[in-house]
Amino acid sequence: MLLRTAIATLVCLLSLTSIVFVARLYRRDNPSSSTWVPTFAAQHVQPCPGTLDWLLPLGLTYPVKYARRDIIVKPTSDAKRLSVTELPAPLFPDFQVIDKADVSLKDCKDPLLLHVPAPPGGPVDASRIIFGISTTLTRLDDSIPSLLRWLPNTRAKLFVIAIKDDDVPDDSKDRYHPADPKDMSDLQDRMHTLGLDVTIVPPLSRRDFFSQRYFSLVRVIYEHRQPTTQWVSLIDDDTFFLSMPSLLGMLSRFDPQQQFYVGALSEDWWSVTRYGMMGFGGAGVFLSIALAEIVNSKYTVCQERSHTSAGDIRLRECISWYTRTKLTNILDLHQIDIHNDLSGIYESGRLPLSLHHWKGGGPDGKGYPLHTMHLVADICGDCFLQRWQFGNDMLLTNGFSISTYPGAGLKALDLEMIEETWDHPTKVDGSVNENGVDHSLGPTRPKLQLGKDKVQYRLLDSALVDGAVRQWYLKAGVGGDHDSVLELVWMQSSGANP
Predict the structure, then answer these.
(1) What is the mean pLDDT of residues 2-9?
(2) How far is CA 281 from CA 143, 311, 341, in A?
(3) Mean pLDDT for the stretch of residues 104-123
(4) pLDDT tens per residue across span 313-338
């Protein structure tokens, strides 16, 4: 009896070893594939939880249609971020109608394993860049959540020229109301405690308009340069960088000891024809230290000679007057001068270096909360806005939307082309740039009719909970139908399944 038990145990162990060996072979040969993994592959995996109490703070109107899935990501050295990663199986089980959070789900799927590109080794070192912003103390305070997504722990410094506001009478000798020094100091201290290496300073002159204060950032930053400083960057308080390693990779293509003016044209061709071939400020403008030295040396004469009300134009004018340096246009830096529904940009599958004008606008006027959308990057690095296709008709754009395509499905669409979801820009008479964005976002494809050709679940909220990121995507009910909620829980592999 003991002999038979020992033999049976040995056979079971050998069988389990063979299964694990085959699974490892499969994953090594298919690093970008996905498969189910048992629940011990990561902590907190509950394919079918007994309660949904975490839905309560979302303020949903019950009953709702609900489905969920856990996703375990494994960084892999040879995995690549593709424009679209196609997976044959459905992402979610069928919807279940629930009318309260304390409910037992009837249909759940095992966690899904996705391989994502491994992040660069070692800490990020952006000490070669000093960023600059000109804004009010209130707007700077409001910008802290977004700054916390990309600036801390990078060794990059930020200088802010801050005022209280610029709502002054036309006959005033001053151009703005100065910020209270104590308020400046308190905010700076608070930002330091959050890991933001920021220095808040008043304007250089009480007579400076906004464009002059913006331009004076070059002088402020250049005078505070370090031996490691290679780039002077002027940004807006709503400029958002999605990946510091990618930003550093872009700048590494240029020699900072040569004169480089790096930025992006507006996506709107009318704006380009009106304001010129310049780096539009909200996308982020980068001056090599060699060019910043020249601009700084011409600071006074440029301030006196220029009469524009726009800071980025004043900077372009100074560069064009005293150097032969032309703009190096980086398509992945985005000013976002187009309006209303920007789904096409966010769902393009591309990883922008920067985004701008996200605090307002959108089809509902509430903007695009990038500091919340971007949370999933804590789990899977540069997978934010990455696209996965499930079956023939579902497309996940991580952190923004989940869309289904009834009828012909995704086969009828060229997903390499950006959908023109935004309002058409002002036309330029005689221009062959007919849709106004060919130079920046093209090629594009026509807008689909929501509810008919495309059903979109937009990110409602996300949260970091117990080392995992929960995302909730919502589609409002129409014609008496219930609202629909899709939940994804992203977590990192614990290493149980290499």
Answers:
(1) 40
(2) 16, 8, 22
(3) 87
(4) 999 999 999 999 999 999 999 999 99
Strand 387-390 to strand 261-263: parallel, antiparallel, or no bridges (unpaired)? unpaired
Going by C-alpha positions, the residue among 269, 267, 279 that lies closest to residue 318 is 279
355's enclosing H/E stretch is strand 354-355
Tokens (6 digits) for 427? 């036309």
- pLDDT of amino acid 418: 97
Mean pLDDT of 13-18: 37
What is d(CA 490, CA 111) in angstroms, rounded to the nearest whole number? 10
| Residue 470 to residue 491: CA distance in whole angstroms | 9
* pLDDT for res 415: 96
Q: Closest by alpha carbon to 383, among 24, 34, 23?
A: 34
Closest CA to 376 of 204, 174, 149, 59: 149
Question: What is the enclosing helix (H) or strand (E) of 459?
Answer: strand 455-465
Quote the CA–CA distance of 433 and 154 in Å, as a whole number. Answer: 39
Residue 139, token pair as written in the block: 């707007």
Mean pLDDT of the residues in the chain:
87
Coil, strand or helix: which one is 233?
strand
Taken in order 303, 305, 310, 311, the sign of the CA dihedral is negative
Treating both helix axes as pointing N-terminal to C-terminal, what angle do 210-223 and 311-322 enclose, rounded to 10 degrees? 60
User: Do residues 354 and 241 lie in contact, with contact meaning Cβ atoms separated by under 8 Å?
Assistant: yes
CA distance 329 to 332: 9
CA distances from residue 370 to 146, 367, 399 in whole angstroms, order as listed: 7, 9, 9
Number of other residues whose CB lies within 10 A of the CB of residue 419: 20
Q: What is the identity of the amino acid at 475?
A: K
Which of 144, 161, 240 lies closest to 196, judged by CA?
A: 144
Say how many CA atoms lie within 13 Å of 494 toward its Cβ: 12
CB 272 within 8 A of CB 263: no
Spatial separation of the C-alpha atoms in residues 93 and 251, rounded to whole Å: 44
Question: 3-state secondary structure string, 234-300?
Answer: ECCCCCEECCHHHHHHHHCCCCCCCCCEEECCCCCHHHHHHHCCCCCHHHCEEEEHHHHHHHHHCHH
pLDDT at 496 over 50: no
pLDDT in tens, 138-160: 999 999 999 999 999 999 999 99
Give the Å distances, CA to CA, from 35 to 109, 119, 408: 11, 22, 26
Q: pLDDT of 380-437, one tens digit each? A: 999 999 999 999 999 999 999 999 999 888 999 999 999 999 998 888 988 888 889 9
Residue 108 has a pLDDT of 86
Tokens coding 80? 């690549």
Strand pairing partners for 418?
444
Q: Could you read off the pLDDT of 27-46 as tens digits, one per residue? A: 323 333 333 333 333 444 56
Amino acid at 431: S
Phi-psi region of 137 (alpha: psi -120 to 50; beta: other; left: phi over 0): alpha
